[in-house]
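A further point concerns the way the authors explain their paired sequence and structure data. Since the whole study asks how a given chain folds, the encoding of that fold should be made plain. A single example would do more here than another paragraph of explanation. An entry of this sort, consisting of the sequence and the corresponding backbone structure tokens, reads as follows:

_____
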Amino acid sequence: MIDLNHILLFLAIVSPLAVLARTWRPGPAYRGWRMAAIIVLVVTGIAWLLFRANAGYIGGGAWLALLFLPAVGVRRVTELIARQRYKSARKLASSLQILHPSSELRDQIQWLRSLESQSSPTNPAWTQRWSQDRHRSIRHAPMVYALIVLNIAAFIFEISHRHWQEPMGLHRLGALEPYAVIVNHEDWRLVTALFLHYDVVHLLFNLFALYVLGPPLERAIGAVRFLTCYLIAGLGSSAGVVALTLFRVAHADQLVGASGCIMGIVGAWAGFLLRHRHAPLAKQRLLNVAMIVAIQIAFDLSTPQISMAAHLCGLVMGFLAGLLFAGKKMSI
């Protein structure tokens, strides 16, 4: 089982460090994020010294309030502006100021007030940015949402069985067991294990990652190709674990989860961006992908319950699929 306190502690340490690494450039635009990241690290450090057993929950709460919610909120503000819902965007931005009182957010609010009163905008930089966002129409990603629904449906089916969290219950449901695949030729486990999860936390983390990383890639390569990448990465992840177990490079008694598929999406992004490395912002996004991979490897090394072999195999297969499906020029 995955320890939620451990996961939150990892996030409360690594996420602020990643924010600091990305906002190292001087200037007021990043000052709010730098201060928030430093506060989260300080709170987590104090919690580790004084309340070690619950340090993850305390630091994770600070991370949720000061980094995660503001980041999601700012993204939502941008979406509302793209839809020309300026009043809703201003209200949301104003509420975000409580958690994230940055000069950038104050500029947004002032600019939105000028739009509401139909006066000319006073900040050309924001005008250009939001004009671009408006022209990038918010398109749906049907395959991502279909996969989210499918995983939720599979989890509901899973918990409807008795002893579903026990090894024997997961065995009956179709968990990946290299021995069963190699000796008993139960190859179907390579697929069924991708739609099973240990608990609600495991499911939510994977679905959140799919929701964040999946839609932009699906819009870039198309729904069919996205699904193909997802399944190739998942099957490659499962088959890779079996092969590595057979050659005694890795050891896994029983595995479940869609994380191999999720790492495949990260790998597909890397392959796609590498093929389009001369496009605007491609190099910056490749660095973001590299940071995600580094964080995931660090998490795998610090968490014995996690299979690094499954993640790396999914990453490699997704990367190859991304290279394959990125042949034509597309907007990224």
Notes: The two ends are 38 Å apart (CA to CA). The CA atoms of residues 91 and 109 lie 8 Å apart.
